Each structure stands twice: as structure tokens, then as C-alpha cells.
Amino acid sequence: MQQFLASLEAIDGNDGDSAYDIWIAAGNTGTEQEFLNSLKGEKGDPGVDGFINTGSSMYFTEIEETQILLSKTSCETLDNDVDGMISPPGSGWTTNAALGFSSCWTTPNGSYRGGCESSQQWTAPLNCRIEPKTPLTSSVEHFYENINSSKIVITPPAGNQSFEISMKIEFMNANGDLISSFVEHSYVESYSVTKYFSSQASHEFLLNTINPRYSTSYPYYRPINELIFQLSENAVNLKITYEAIAPENPPSDFYVLVAPTYNSSGGSISYNWLQQEFDYKIFVWR
């Protein structure tokens, strides 16, 4: 055993050449200080800004809510036409049947409602909230610039009980090329649900599928509902396209016509075929 332990003892070897000696042996000349100075290279070009990447996710420091584009009533446009509202193809709103419609109405006591000047007035309004000057379209685009992020969260608007609406989401880089994105859809009904959509250049969702509107009890749509987009690179622009889809079996009367406003309540059965606004939110992760 003692012999074995003694065999483990190392024997001092000869000193090797220093780095300076090797440098001289390679054909260089100069002092040790000159050798040390030679180890420092010239200053390089500035590098590009980087990010901390840990697998499929990145670190973010803040979340910014984007100001969304809103539909406009006849009270809010210069030509007193509606803007940003859509209706399914073939409905009365998309034809000349919409021209001449007015959302103003007269109450039993003779006052006027639905006008732009006041919620209730005693003289006929000059303009009314919904007074189409041209037939409506069946689709509308919302375009957002300077997104500059690789993670965006969108809370989708609620669906329409009378017809389906598709929502197409596309992200673009500075060259206008589409950017692929992976989507996580998280929402709560009686329990939490998460669904995943594989990465592709554009994603299209049906609002009545991802956020159906309920009529029996409050809340009338899913209280927590998020589409979480993870992009392969920073998106510069975002385009959301809403398109109304014609129902398979529309009613034969007030689908192709536009019913006048009821004087008793200010409603119209034709409002069922009109999407007046899109209530959604966009959160950009910085």
C-alpha cells in the first residue's frame, strides 16, 4: 500500500516556455511590454442591440395598451355618413335600401331622440346617429403601425348572434412581409381553457367560436379571453380584418330590407344585421 501511495507522488518537471518566449520563437521581436501591447486589438465597430432570449420566450419590462380604431356614427364624420360598420353580403344595409334610413325617432310626447345634437330635443334633429349616405361594406380593415414587438395580446370582440364575423390577424415587418406567429388562446367560462394554434403567416378566427355572445345571463361574453401571439421576429405593423359572413338561411323580409326605426323604442329589427362597433383591446409587450 505504501509503495502504491508513493507512486502517486509527482516528480518536478522542467519549466516550460513562457507566452513571451513562444512569441519570440515564432519570429517576433520586441520587449515583454511590446508583447503585452500586441495582445490588445483595435477597437471594433459598434454592435447591434440584443435581447435576452431564454428558449421560446423573452424578457419584457412593460405592457402597453394600443389605442384601437373605432367605428364612427353619422354624428362623428364630416359627411355625416357612418364609417367602420359592416353587414353581411346581400343584406339591406349593403344595398341602396340603407339609404334614407334614420335612427331618429319620435316619442309619444312628441320629443325627438336619436339625434346628434341631444339625446332628447323638441325640434327635429339636423342629423341622426345612424344615417347611411352610401351602402355599407361587408368588411373593414384596422391597420396599426409601429408595433415593434414580438409578443402581442389581443382580447377579441364578442360575436354577433345574428350572423358570423371572421377576424383575420396579420403581422408585418418593415418590408411589408408577413411574419409567422404562434397563438395561444386562453379564456374562462366555468373553468380555464387554453388552446394552441400552430405557427403560420396569418390567423383567422370566427368570433362566435372564440368569443360567443350570450343572451341569457350576464356577462354576455367570456369575461377573460385572450389571443396571445408569439412572433418569430419583431412586428412593425398589424392588420386586423373583420368580415361579415352571410347566414345560410337569412329571413326573407328584413334581411334584404332595412326596417324603419320604431317610434315606441327607437329600435329596428334591421339592427340585427348591422355590426356597429368592435370592442377589443391590443396589448403590446415591450
Walk me through this protein's architecture.
The strands form four sheets. The chain has a six-stranded antiparallel beta sheet with strand order 3-15-8-13-10-11, with no helix packed on it. By secondary structure, it is mainly beta. Mean pLDDT is 85; it is low at 48-57. It has helices at 2-7, 19-25, 32-38, 207-210, and strands at 53-54, 57-58, 63-66, 105-106, 112-113, 120-121, 139-144, 149-155, 164-172, 181-188, 192-200, 202-206, 224-235, 237-245, 281-285.
Number of helices: 4
What is the overall shape? elongated
Helix content: under 10%
- Proportion of residues in β-strands: 25-35%
Can you lay out the helices and strands and say which pair or pack?
Layout: H1 2-7, H2 19-25, H3 32-38, E1 53-54, E2 57-58, E3 63-66, E4 105-106, E5 112-113, E6 120-121, E7 139-144, E8 149-155, E9 164-172, E10 181-188, E11 192-200, E12 202-206, H4 207-210, E13 224-235, E14 237-245, E15 281-285
Antiparallel strand pairs: 1-2, 3-15, 4-5, 5-6, 7-14, 8-13, 8-15, 9-12, 9-14, 10-11, 10-13
Tags for this entry?
8% helix, single chain, mainly beta, four-stranded antiparallel sheet, six-stranded antiparallel sheet, 286 residues
Nutshell version of this structure?
The chain is mainly beta and 286 residues long. It is built from 4 helices and 15 strands.
